[in-house]
Amino acid sequence: MLPQEKRILLPQDLKTVKTLEEYRGTGGLAGLQKARSLGPQQAIDVVKQSGLRGRGGAGFPVGVKWQTVYDDPSTTKYVVCNGAEGEPGTYKDRYLISKNPYWVLEGMLIAAHAMKAPAAIIGTKKKFTHPVERLQKAVAEFEAAGAAPRGFLEIVLGPDDYLFGEEKALLEVIDGYDAMPRNLPPFYVGIRATPTERNPTLVNNVESMSHLPNIFARGPEWFRSFGTKDTPGTMMITLSGDVKRPGIYELPTGLTLRQLLYDIGGGPAGDEPFKAVFSGVSNAVILPEAFDTVMDFGSLRAAGAGLGSGGFMVYDASHCMVKVALMFSSFLAESSCGQCIPCKRGCRVITGHLDNLESNRGSREDLDNIFYESGHCTDQTRCFLPQQEAKVITSIIQAFPEDFKRHAQGLRCPLTRQPVLPRIEYFDEATSRFIYENKQSVVLSRP
Ligand code: SF4
After folding, report:
1. Candidate of 281, 382, 391 to mutate for ligand 1, largest count of ligand atoms within 8 Å of Cβ
2. CA atoms within 13 A on the CB side of 401
3. For the segment 272-304, what is each residue's pLDDT rounded down to a tens digit?
4. Domains and CATH numbers, the chain
5. What residues are in contact with ligand 1 under a 6 Å CB criterion?
């Protein structure tokens, strides 16, 4: 274990927690017992006091979310755990579940107690076979031990779609539909709603839920003793790309990006220096001059980027950022579900302009049009996918004008290396290497 690592969620020895009995032996289920000794409002107050912020990407205060759902006058509320991890460069939820599926299930039971929910459902991808097997076995153990009523904890398996991880699309899948974001937010219209019952639903992701047992068992002050005031606790970080030591690390928030890249990641993997870092495909690029920024939600947002779901993708100076922008844009355009015309059209048009530039068929006009489309693809949309596209692509163009100028002028680009979008299929712990999915097509509408 590196000196910077602090493990709350991952086992100290990184050995897999194999049974509920073993889990109990390390203090498991104490948090649930404590939560059940409290009334719902008291339980919500504990979460508020902990300062826990959602680990799914937005960093919204979890206690505030709980209070909103709890205060709704509807009689039935549900709890849903978002386990449909699909952000490129992120593998932490699957890793966490594979190591110890009991944290997340105990967290779901705590949340269900606070919401007085009749069921708690985790939505995850059918293709995540090992984590799903671990969850299924753990649910059976919870039921056999009497920790959860039979059928109370449900596992819903869904498609391998990026949008499945969007919470309004997640609820659609749980309700038996395609992964296409609905209009109204979960805290207003939840799952299994009827014309007369809205069923507001609390949605937290795997890592957020997994923190709950320790917050209740050891107290909110203990949790706040880790990390920063802005983002208390630890965070699961996935580090991929051109670093010597890629991997999955549990770190207290508050380390700088430089510490992550050099002390933990070991510095550049090859001879080239770092050129750009991305925290997923939904935030602006982070440049080397910002590497001293503290890794918490507030600091990275203030620096114009974001913490996202803690997945950092690193590209060194051997990469042309026109290629990187085309790769990101193509992924997002391919992921658009097409319900909203500005998104469906705009994302593809942006990809088309980038393709023109990358293949040296473009001009300055393509760049102007990308900025124009970025301002319009976000009009009246159901989810934030086009906002992500606009933010990440325009930030890359602004940060690397020389790369784009070269392509816009039709000059030969010396940076021929093909970038990889780290859609992670598997993490090989023995070698600390990621295995990536092998699919990346270019989706475009040629201007
Ligand atoms: S904004 Fe795009 S991805 Fe989101 S619902 Fe609309 S069309 Fe689908």
Report:
1. 382
2. 2
3. 999 999 999 989 999 999 999 999 999 999 999
4. 20-224 (3.40.50.11540), 234-316 (3.10.20.600), 321-436 (1.20.1440.230)
5. 163, 181, 336-340, 343-344, 381-383, 385-386
